[in-house]
Design a protein that fits this description.
heterotrimer, A mainly alpha (190), B mainly beta (267), C mainly alpha (266), A: 190 residues, mainly alpha, Rna Polymerase Sigma Factor, Chain: A, Arc Repressor Mutant, subunit A, 8 helices, B: 267 residues, mainly beta, 20-stranded mixed β-sheet
Chain lengths: 190, 267, 266
């Protein structure tokens, strides 16, 4: 990574190839499937990475550095975006993302989950996504967000719990519609 | 780190009657052990002449093309030039860059340089670029002026807008592509008869001549067949293989003739 | 010592990072907080399900934009440093980079051959395609790296190498468009234009070519663009050419050609 510090821009292309998908996925999930915005934000991230490569001090992993930039880019984006509160019902309006799952039930559940994710606050959704990024440790997330590792874990827990509650409501509505019998309220999946 | 390797620099004052003529000389002392050396120079206005020699230093002479006409006052007062031009060099080791601060002045440069050197030269206006006896990679861009290479061993990428290109290669670096383009001007090249290359040539309004035996190379249609798109053949270059074929030598002139000769070996 | 909030441990629990003993401890601690085993199980399943959420697939545009931006940044940096010879020029010895990557390709090939030799059944069609993809990928990376070199000869070599690819992916196209718009050497620009013409059936390339019209000052390139746009019958080029015609310093042959192009395209 010291090559980046030395200013060899050609090395950035190697880093781009390595991180473009994880960063794209990060935005894709936190924007709930907005492809165009996700691409724009990825572009912004690497633009900043090139311009501010000197901010990488060599301390800590590169994953943390690039995701810090991504986190900040996301924050800037959210600030600009006007918040329309969606008075959507608890009923899904249809699939927004297509899955290639052969298992019908799993497909339906994922669609419900994705819908439930939309209902979370931006910070809640983000912390769940961050927690699932491969190679990014909780301690690093904590540094990025300016808090402690313990706090990160508690926040993830709370977000997942909220997500679970919303998910169950949605699934119950789906089952009622599909006329399935005997679904236990408590179990989230078979 | 940028080190200044200016060892000596002295102002040449040649007092010639009746005008005062000022030139400037710069000698750059080089460490002979360095390999892959590149010399870079961009002349805003004026010509550049580079001659390779067996010495160790780079000797730069800069002369203003237009002399200051000066009228001596009856009281013996001469106008002193307030803005002399200033030439200096910077290097980081194997790359040596020459710079001149001469706003608006047309300066002609004569440069003696060790034979084994790669060159990157540019003139924006008002000058020809001439290079002789060099062994290396030569990159030249000229706008208003000719480019002429003589007794070169290596490869080159040359382009000019209004000007002729003439290049004579004693030896050609194998596996090295080359490119010669001029908008208005003839291009005349000489290569050793044993060169292995593929020539790709195009002249807008001129003619192409060569005494090499060219084996024609199949021209490819450029745009492949796609639904609802016609096939365009935009590749209308003349392409020919010399000897065993090899890297591409690309030559293009819009308003000019192209002539490729076998270099005659002088016995 | 302050007792840690058991909720902190939940994540580790959900991930399965705790020993059975630790897990039991955490679960009992949570039960006191009103979180029972059933809920824990739900949470675990949700946490697992989240991992299957669609990660999304970027369009081919994203790569193209990045490589164009990279080429632009590189050329801007070069232009800004014109009067300073940076350390970079010395380090970015084109020969070294080319050799290193070529060595990488060679080693990779060696590894593949070794695997086949040791008698492993690796010659399935899929593996072959995979290897050939990897090779193309490496080659593309080599070409892209060469496009960043200081020596225009290296950049010309890179553009020539592109003729060996049947189709260019968005990275290559981005790099070529970047060169066409920003390269300091007119010969490199011209060659990039010729290379891009090959891919002109790609709408992104055509769009890029139209946009590049405004960035050219070399008569050769302006002329060639006019020829190409007429051959492709690209109407969108007409307004761009009209802008160029307003430049009084335009070479007369180029002016005529562009006027002709505008007439044909409109």
């Amino acid at each position: 990574m010291s090559h980046v510090i030395d200013g060899e821009i050609d090395k950035i292309s190697i880093l781009y190839e390595k991180y473009k998908r994880p960063i794209y996925s990060y935005f894709f999930k936190t924007t709930c499937g907005d492809r165009e915005t996700s691409e724009d934000l990825v572009h912004t991230v690497f633009y900043r990475a090139i311009r501010y490569k000197h901010s990488f001090t060599g301390q800590g992993s590169f994953t943390k550095w690039i995701f810090s930039i991504a986190h900040n880019v996301g924050l800037d984006h959210n600030r600009k975006k006007r918040n329309y509160y969606n008075y959507e019902s608890e009923v899904r309006s249809g699939h927004s993302i297509m899955y290639d799952e052969n298992d019908y039930e799993k497909k339906e559940q994922l669609a419900s989950l994705e819908f439930a994710m939309k209902k979370l606050e931006d910070e809640e959704r983000e912390i769940i996504v961050l927690g699932k990024i491969e190679g990014l440790r909780y301690k690093e997330i904590a540094d990025m967000l300016g808090t402690t590792e313990g706090n990160v874990k508690v926040r993830i827990f709370r977000a997942i719990r909220k997500l679970k509650d919303i998910f169950i409501k949605i699934e119950n509505v789906r089952y009622e519609k599909e006329g399935s019998k005997g679904k236990d309220n408590r179990s989230a999946s078979r | 780190m940028i080190k200044k390797l200016i060892i000596s620099k002295f102002l040449l004052l040649m007092i010639a009657i009746p005008v005062l003529c000022q030139g400037e000389q710069l000698i750059i002392n080089l460490s002979p052990s360095l390999k892959n050396r590149i010399f870079i120079f961009e002349n805003q206005k004026g010509s550049i002449r580079v001659i390779g020699y067996d010495g160790e230093d780079i000797v730069v002479n800069a002369t203003p093309r237009f002399r200051e006409t000066e009228k001596s006052g009856s009281d013996g007062m001469r106008r002193i030039e307030q803005n002399p031009f200033n030439i200096y060099a910077e290097t980081d080791g194997s790359t040596i860059g020459l710079y001149s601060r001469a706003i608006g002045k047309t300066l002609d440069f004569d440069i003696k340089i060790p034979r084994n050197f790669s060159l990157k030269l540019k003139s924006l206006d008002n000058g020809n670029i001439q290079i002789t006896n060099i062994n290396g990679e030569i990159e030249v861009e000229n706008a208003n002026g000719d480019i002429s290479l003589e007794n070169i061993s290596g490869s080159s990428v040359l382009s000019t807008v209004y000007g002729k290109i003439s290049a004579v290669f004693r030896e050609v670096k194998p596996d090295s592509p080359m490119m010669f383009t001029s908008f208005e001007g003839n291009i005349t090249l000489e290569f050793p008869p044993a060169i292995n290359a593929i020539l790709k040539m195009k002249s807008g309004t001129g003619e192409i001549h060569t005494d090499f035996d060219l084996v024609p190379v199949m021209r490819q249609p450029v745009v492949k067949n796609v639904e609802n798109t016609k096939i365009y053949t935009l590749e209308d270059w003349v392409a020919g293989k010399i000897n065993a074929g090899g890297p591409e030598i690309i030559i293009k002139s819009y308003n000019g003739n192209i002539t490729i000769r076998k270099k005659q070996v002088i016995k | 010592m302050k007792k840690k909030d058991p909720k902190e441990k939940i994540i580790d629990l959900l991930q399965g990072n705790l020993t059975p003993e630790e897990a039991r401890e955490v679960i009992s601690g949570l039960e006191k907080d009103g979180i029972d085993a059933g809920e824990l199980e739900s949470l675990r399943r949700i946490s697992h399900l989240i991992e299957s959420v669609n990660p999304g697939e970027p369009s081919s545009d994203m790569d193209r934009r990045f490589y164009e931006m990279l080429a632009n940044e590189e050329n801007e940096a070069l232009a800004a440093e014109k009067s300073l010879i940076g350390k970079r020029w010395f380090q970015a010895s084109s020969f070294n980079v080319g050799v290193r990557i070529a060595a990488g390709i060679a080693l990779f090939l060696l590894g593949w051959f070794t695997a086949s030799w040791s008698g492993q059944k690796s010659n399935t069609d899929r593996e072959m395609a995979d290897v050939s993809n990897k090779l193309t990928d490496l080659k593309q990376t080599l070409v892209l790296t060469m496009m960043q070199q200081n020596s225009s000869l290296e950049r010309i070599k890179a553009v020539n190498m592109l003729n060996e690819f049947d189709s260019a992916d968005e990275r290559i196209i981005g790099s070529l468009l970047g060169a066409l718009n920003h390269d300091e050497n007119d010969n490199v620009r011209l060659l990039s234009l010729e290379a891009l013409i090959r891919y002109s059936s790609n709408p992104a390339v055509r769009e890029g070519l139209v946009t590049s019209i405004a960035n050219q000052s070399s008569p050769m390139i302006q002329l060639r663009l006019a020829e190409v746009m007429v051959a492709l019958n690209e109407r969108k080029a007409a307004p761009e050419f009209q802008k160029v015609l307003m430049n009084s310093g335009l070479n007369y042959s180029v002016r005529n050609k562009i006027k002709e192009a505008v007439t044909v395209l409109l």
